[in-house]
Write a structure and sequence with these properties.
The structure holds 2 protein chains of 2 kinds.
Chain A (H helix, E strand, L loop, with lengths): L4 E9 L2 E2 L14 H10 L5 E5 L8 H13 L4 E4 L5 H9 L4 E4 L1 H5 L2 H10 L4 E9 L6 E5 L4 E6 H10 L4 E6 L11 H10 L4 E4 L5 H9 L5 E4 L1 H4 L5 H10 L7
Parallel strand pairs in A: 1-3, 1-11, 3-4, 4-5, 5-6, 6-9, 9-10, 10-11
Antiparallel strand pairs in A: 1-2, 6-7, 7-8
Helix pairs in contact in A: 1-2, 6-7
Chain B lengths: L1 E4 L7 H9 L4 E4 L10 E4 L5 H10 L2 H11 L3 E4 L1 H5 L3 E2 L5 E2 L7 E4 L9 E6 L15 E6 L1 E3 L6 E7 L1 E9 L2 E4 L7 H15 L5
Parallel strand pairs in B: 1-2, 1-3, 3-4, 4-13, 5-7
Antiparallel strand pairs in B: 5-6, 7-10, 8-9, 11-12, 12-13
The chains are: A alpha/beta, B alpha/beta.
Chain lengths: 253, 203
């Protein structure tokens, strides 16, 4: 059985993990490389490194971080944030990242996905989408620029278009559930996971083990992502995996 | 010295770093002539089969790899590098492989399961030196094509849609469809096993 993946996400700002990560035994809890190494040891299946203000600063330090993570962590990792051209994707992959996640530039110019998938292969292009339920309940809209602007695009249609254009995975963040800790957004996760042939990573809202179970069993996600929950050790990855295994979900132990 | 063959298909850094993490001198090599000096040769690769095959041909690496395999040099194909060792692939047409291992590369049949087969999956029916000391290893895959079915060379089976050859060994020729360099500690162990096998040792 293909294992469901548990993915910690590191938000990085000016080369530091934002809010820090409360790992015992780290010399520097804000260092993205140390955090990545620790997550690898703690049983993470994959990592996402998100440069949260990449568009406002020079990107130099991020390349150094990616290279150093690639030297020490032998599990797959995705890099996102501020990727606006093919050269940037190429540089990130050459530094040792396995995938890149693309958000706003794809919305501004959907051909961006097509070109990236053709050049680098679908397997390394992750389409990240931030979605929010429409007030009238008729569906979900896609937002851009870190959730600040409603694009007016329908989430389901955008997911389908992204896959047609060649993205190999969808990182789906629900703005309705993000940061609340009340559980992943099951309805939109399931809607998209059932509609596209590529894996969907559920993101936003993880608060306890049951939420992960529901993302997999009810939301049909292939992977689930969380940040704060893991950073502050409110939930240990191996405890979560033990719980999921008992619930009959296939995980890597 | 372990040679990692560079033929312009994808990032080789992870593979190199993984070997370096176990203290090996791993070098990225693009010249066919330089492969003779290596103790062992690793053929990685990510991307389309036809393009990869073309580049191997254009650089003369194809003939060199075939001759090294025949002369007993330990070789490890990873992912697309595994597929290239076989007779042919049906990725976007029909293309000849290196005919070092027998079998065909085909797309996963269409079912409800997601393709690419991406993520961690468990191996069964493991045999051979690559898996010394391991029991039901869980390893990382990313691929849409694979060697159809199993054969006498199959060294590990993965069941996704249907059972397929996830690793192979025929004498000095080794191959993995999964990425040992991305499979955590178990993957590193598999690479170390390859090095040990290359040096003629037993676990």
């Amino acid at each position: 059985m293909l294992c469901k993946r548990i993915i910690p996400c590191l938000d990085i700002k000016e080369g530091r993990v934002v809010k820090g990560v409360k790992f015992l035994g780290l010399r520097d809890a804000g260092d993205p490389v140390e955090c990545s190494v620790m997550y690898n040891k703690l049983g993470a299946d994959e990592l996402v490194l998100l440069d949260i203000n990449a568009s406002h600063e020079g990107r130099g330090p991020m390349y150094d971080i990616i290279s150093r993570v690639a030297e020490k962590v032998f599990i797959p990792f995705t890099v996102g944030g501020g990727i606006r051209d093919m050269d940037t994707i190429r540089s990130i992959l050459l530094c040792g990242a396995d995938k890149v996640s693309i958000n706003s530039p794809a919305l501004a110019e959907p051909d961006f996905i097509t070109e990236a998938a053709l050049r680098f292969g679908s397997q390394c292009i992750v389409l990240a989408m931030d979605v929010k339920r429409r007030a009238d309940g008729s569906g979900w809209d896609v937002y851009k620029n870190g959730g600040r602007l409603n694009t007016g695009r329908d989430a389901l249609e955008w997911a389908r278009e992204g896959v047609e254009r060649g993205c190999g995975e969808i990182l789906l963040t629900s703005m309705d559930t993000d940061g609340v800790g009340g559980g992943f957004d099951i309805p939109i996760t399931r809607l998209i996971a059932d509609a596209v042939p590529v894996p969907v990573i559920a993101s936003g809202g993880a608060g306890k083990p049951e939420h992960f179970r529901d993302a997999f069993t009810k939301g049909h996600a292939e992977a689930a992502l969380a940040a704060t929950l893991f950073h502050f050790r409110e939930l240990e990855i191996m405890d979560l995996k033990n719980y999921l295994a008992i619930e009959g979900i296939s995980v890597r132990m | 010295m372990i040679a990692i063959v560079d033929y312009g298909m994808g990032n080789l850094r992870s593979v190199q770093k993984a070997f370096e993490s176990i203290g090996e001198d791993a070098r990225v090599i693009a010249e066919a002539g330089s492969l003779d000096e290596a103790e062992a040769v690793v053929l990685p690769g990510v991307g389309a089969f036809s393009q990869a095959r073309e580049r191997l041909g254009a650089t003369g690496l194809d003939k060199k790899i075939i001759s090294l395999a025949g002369s007993g040099k330990p070789i490890l194909g990873i992912c697309l590098g595994m597929q290239l060792l076989y007779d042919c692939s049906y990725e976007d047409g029909k293309f000849e492989g290196l005919h070092i291992l027998k079998g065909e590369v085909t797309h996963f049949p269409k079912t409800d399961l997601k393709v690419p087969h991406m993520g961690w999956n468990t191996l069964s029916d493991i045999r051979g030196q690559l898996f010394d000391g391991l029991l039901s290893p869980c390893v990382y895959f990313v691929h849409s094509y694979r060697i159809s079915g199993v054969s006498e060379d199959t060294a590990a089976v993965c069941d996704y849609v249907s059972p397929f050859t996830a690793a192979a060994q025929r004498g000095n020729v080794f191959a993995t469809q999964f990425h040992p360099e991305k499979s955590g500690d178990i993957g590193i162990k598999i690479l170390a096993n390859f090095v040990r096998a290359a040096r003629g040792g037993n676990a």
